[in-house]
Design goal:
Elements: H1 7-15, E1 21-22, H2 33-39, H3 64-71, E2 82-85, H4 87-99, E3 105-110, H5 115-122, E4 126-131, H6 142-148, E5 153-159, H7 171-184, E6 187-191, E7 215-220, E8 233-236, H8 239-252, H9 258-269, H10 271-295, E9 299-301, E10 309-314, H11 320-331, E11 333-334, E12 336-337, E13 346-350, H12 355-372
Parallel strand pairs: 1-11, 3-4, 3-5, 5-6, 6-7
Antiparallel strand pairs: 2-8, 7-8, 9-10, 10-13, 12-13
Helix pairs in contact: 3-9, 4-5, 4-8, 10-12
Bound molecules: pyridoxal-5'-phosphate.
Length: about 375
């Protein structure tokens, strides 16, 4: 089975190790184990739990404690609707294995995380994209969605909050998307890894699984919870979907590591504290980015409403791959070229990493923009 190369992962794998100022990062600044323990109000004595841990496969669906803590991130979800996976990457791959076949029709909102269209395509599905446009604040046009779906549409796939634009679909529009899915018999698969990082209010976007019976949510410890190193994610889905997913999971995952399960349970028992830290960081750093965009005349963007990234357009005749390669070579600043999302004249910036990295990287980016102008 052939699959298109995963453009953002390819770029990160090639260049992440070479940069001085990583503004391509999408995680809220990752935590050390020591920082995690401190935020959870404990210390290294907590780690003694590992000494008596018998290293078998653990609970293959994820421990009940962990699934309970994940269920608590939603308004109306029981632990038996949760399946623990190898990151959100594993969750998304499993969902498409379970829901998509060569005869499926899939609608994927773009730009998005490439899994959501390249995996269905690799299975031979007929994939249509619903383009999110700058002039619409990168929000979906619901009438266009209505026109694209068909009787054989099996999945409507989106990322909310969105990567790369940071746009956020609110409850009313999510309900309309779910209704459109319901009418044509499609599941709405929503990648919610950035959930919990909204710029205003309490900070947590409603999940599709709390808004409609055909909603499927994927999430993980990587972004809003700053623990990508745990490689731990999840799927919340209706029972008939979970059953199919479980069959695939048995073949390619079995279970996640017990130490990861334990630490994720601990982190999610303190979800409020971790999310508060993330919101404080993303809100402070977005203010810094926004001040820069307002004063830098060669760039423009739609200010993100959530997430950790922004799509910034630049006013130069230079393709985005060349722009980002040369920027890295000359300044040590790493961005993500828009070409990774099939968008030219733009780059994705990840602003939720270290504040100092952002503060030092932006002036270097400005100097470069004016030098190549
Ligand atoms: C939208 C989206 N989904 C999934 C992933 C993968 O996340 P994980 O680290 O949980 O596998 C990413 C990582 O960048 C992402 O941006």
């Amino acid at each position: 089975m052939e699959i298109e190369p995963f453009a953002v992962e390819l770029w990160m794998g090639q260049f992440e190790g070479q940069c001085q100022y990583n503004l391509a990062e999408t995680c809220v600044r990752s935590l050390t184990i020591g920082e995690l323990l401190e935020l959870c109000g404990t210390d290294e004595t907590e780690l003694s739990a590992f000494l008596s841990m018998k290293m078998d496969y653990g609970s293959v669906d994820g421990s009940l404690q962990l699934r309970t803590n994940i269920a608590n991130l939603y308004s109306n979800v029981e632990p038996n609707r949760v399946l623990v996976t190898h990151g959100a990457a594993g969750a998304n791959a499993l969902i498409y294995s379970a829901l998509v076949s060569p005869t499926s029709h899939v609608v994927s909102f773009v730009p998005t995380y490439q899994q959501h269209y390249s995996i269905p395509k690799s299975f031979g599905a007929d994939v249509d994209v619903l383009q999110l446009r700058k002039q619409d604040q990168f929000l979906p046009n619901i009438d266009e969605l209505r026109a694209i779906v068909r009787d054989d549409t099996s999945v409507i796939a989106l990322t909310n909050p969105n990567n790369p634009t940071g746009s956020l679909i609110h409850q009313e529009a999510l309900k309309q998307i779910l209704e459109i899915g319901e009418d044509c018999g499609a599941y709405v698969v929503c990648d919610e890894v950035y959930r919990g990082t909204d710029q205003v209010g309490a900070g947590t976007t409603p999940s599709v699984v709390d808004l409609g019976g055909n909603g499927v949510s994927t999430g993980s410890m990587s972004k809003a919870f700053s623990l990508a190193g745990l490689r731990l994610g999840w799927i919340v889905a209706p029972p008939e979907v979970l059953e199919q997913v479980t069959h695939h999971r048995d073949y390619n995952t079995i279970s996640v590591g017990m130490i990861n399960d334990y630490l994720a349970s601990l982190a999610l028992a303190n979800a409020d504290v971790l999310l508060e830290r993330s919101r404080s960081l993303t809100r402070r750093n977005l203010q810094i980015l926004d001040d820069w965009v307002q004063t830098e005349d060669l760039v423009s963007y739609v200010k993100p409403s959530s997430g950790t990234t922004a799509l910034v357009h630049y006013n130069l005749e230079m393709d985005s791959y060349q722009f980002c390669r040369q920027l890295l070579e000359e300044t040590g600043v790493l961005l993500m070229p828009g070409s990774a999302f099939e968008i030219e004249g733009a780059f994705r910036i990840g602003y939720a990493n270290d504040t100092q990295v952002l503060e030092r990287g932006l002036p270097l980016l400005s100097a470069f923009l004016h030098q190549v102008n």
